[in-house]
Amino acid sequence: MSSSELRRTALDATHRALGATMTDFAGWDMPLRYGSEREEHVAVRTRAGLFDLSHMGEITVTGPQAAELLNFALVGNIGTVKPGRARYTMICREDGGILDDLIVYRLGESEAASSHYMVVANASNAQVVLDALTERAAGFDAEVRDDRDAYALLAVQGPESPGILASLTDADLDGLKYYAGLPGTVAGVPALIARTGYTGEDGFELFVKPEHAVEVWQALTRAGEGAGLVPCGLSCRDTLRLEAGMPLYGNELTTSLTPFDAGLGRVVKFEKEGDFVGRAALTEAAERAASEPPRVLVGLVAEGRRVPRAGYPVVAGGEVIGEVTSGAPSPTLGKPIAMAYVDPAHAAPGTEGVGVDIRGSHEPYEVVALPFYKRQK
Q1: pLDDT exceeds 70 at position 148
Q2: pLDDT digit string (tens) for 352-369?
Q3: Where does the chain have alpha helices with state H?
Q4: Facing residues of 330 across strands?
Q5: What is the DSSP annotation of 147-212?
Q6: What is the pTM of this model?
Q7: Cα–Cα distance between 176 and 183 in angstroms, integer?
């Protein structure tokens, strides 16, 4: 796809004015970095960072049977999500393979508004999720609507983010819990304000109309000047989520894995009423995981300086015992780190003799529990 065919967010001109290095990400022209990705990473960990996430896929589900549709289409129990709250869940194929991991927001602050949900899919899977939800809606009194063009999504993340946002909003941020969202205004603009993120830090994701994106970005930039806020690209977003042990679709999650293979069986709610897509296959996957534990997602910390990349074999005693799914230098730890699926016998933190085959050289790595980094609350 040529750059002229890439989709551009409402903030495209802003990114270019800031000198961003742009990249093709899931068919979108997105900022990779503005200057130093390490400095952007450190800013989010210690102060605050501002992200454009408008490439994410918003899908609205409304109607009297919206909850029933989502309970059938997804593996989680969406019917128990309270108004104003959000839930992390997954959409799976009939064979149990993961199509995408999602956040579902129940919009409206009253039970009367219980039939209004927003599903947020990864950019690379937005069309797949939209198609699956549309197909699975047959027979339900519910409407699935593609709202990808209806929203721009900005995120302000880091320890200074509550103070920065508080100066611009009428919303009660103190009362806004993690994985909750409420309507309010930001810089005088209507927004859905969600306390969610993908960095391991406290922070907020702001859904606004695309025509308001630039003024909200500029207002946040001004409000964050004294707090050390910097614009951040996708590169540091990846190292932040890696340190926080958060899975990335296409790396830790794929259609060849069920949630149980990925160590995320907790998101599958068998106790909910009625059938759901993948129930039979996932029941088998749960039983299989109990009797023959699958490979375990672990953290690896390098003893040397070489950086492992996705697909590199993990080795022990001359045997391949796993595979790296994500790897990068960790600005917080000061060493290369990786997430990898490894055989259960080698998954315990501190397991000795584990290495990564980096182009024929077996580099030593320490097995650690995820996440690599956890913020102090």
Answers
A1: yes
A2: 999 999 999 999 999 999
A3: 12-17, 37-46, 66-73, 126-136, 161-166, 213-223, 234-243, 279-291
A4: 335
A5: -TTT-EEEEEESTTHHHHHHTTB-S-STT--TTBEEEEEETTEEEEEE---SSSS-EEEEEE-GGG
A6: 0.96
A7: 11
